[in-house]
Amino acid sequence: MTDAAVTALVFVVVITIGRLARSRPPLCARVGPLADSPAPPARRVRAHQPLVVGIACAAIATLIAGPMATAIVVVAVLLRPRLTVHRNRRRRVAAVNRAFPDFVDMLVLTIRSGCTPVQAIRTLRGSAPEALRAAVIAVDRHVADGQRFADAIRILAVELGPIAQPLSDSLALADRHGTPLAPILDRLADETRAHRRRAADVSARQLPIRLSFPLVGCTLPSFVLLTIVPLMAGTLSSLPGFSR
């Protein structure tokens, strides 16, 4: 297949993907009373962005480096939203894992001061760590709407992930059966702090591996160019066949 054919094929793929992205309306436009209303101009302009960006990047890559670079650019453009979502999810999980032990300690102090679990959640909705505040506010909102606390507290595990499951189960069990919370929360606080320490140790052990990439990519090539290459050039120049 010639370069022109490969380029044409890449353009066809980009145009097809752009049209599919443009023709698929968002969920809010497919469901609800506003389904028949036309999209505003700004939304229609945003719908053309994947097509325009894909064609522009493919054309520039084709002119500069050929069809192979075009394929790489197209793949990068298509995978960028997924990679961004994955990176944001990982950052959110890391932020929750770092802040959750502090939240458990705050909850223990609030309950030991004489508050019930419901009152403790209501008290902490404004002072909880930022990564957990939305989940705490959601629990308090469901309780204010009339939902039982044992059912509303399940939102913590749903919103924050597996790290909040023991706390959610403990608070639900205490609300249903009246089990004492103080020893359970003390143990949970110790476990969450130990989990955060283990995560910090793992991150510290991974640091040399992360530093090896700039070392290999930047320092090693410069060392080869400034040290090894002159030595090899001097050695080769001293040989009879390579002398001037």
Query: Percent helix among the residues?
Result: over 70%
Separate helix tally: 10
| Average pLDDT reading | 75
**Major sheet size, sense and barrel closure:** none
Structural class, by secondary structure, is mainly alpha
Note the run of SSEs as H and E.
Answer: HHHHHHHHHH
Distance between the termini: 46 Å
User: C-alpha Rg, in Å?
Assistant: 29 Å
Question: What is the β-strand count?
Answer: 0
Instruction: Show unreliable segments.
Output: 23-45
Please provide a written account of the structure.
This protein is mainly alpha-helical. It is 82% helix and 0% strand. The protein has 10 helices and no strands. The protein is elongated and about 95 Å long. It starts with a helix and ends in a 6-residue tail after the last helix.
Brief descriptors of the model:
about 240 residues; mainly alpha; 10 helices; about 80% helix
Q: What does this entry show, briefly?
A:
The protein is mostly helical and 244 residues long. It is built from 10 helices and no strands. The longest helix is centred in the last third of the chain and has 57 residues, at 182-238.
Please write out the topology.
Blueprint: H1 3-23, H2 27-30, H3 41-65, H4 67-112, H5 117-124, H6 130-144, H7 149-152, H8 154-160, H9 165-177, H10 182-238
Helix pairs in contact: 1-3, 1-4, 3-4, 4-5, 4-10, 5-6, 6-8, 8-9
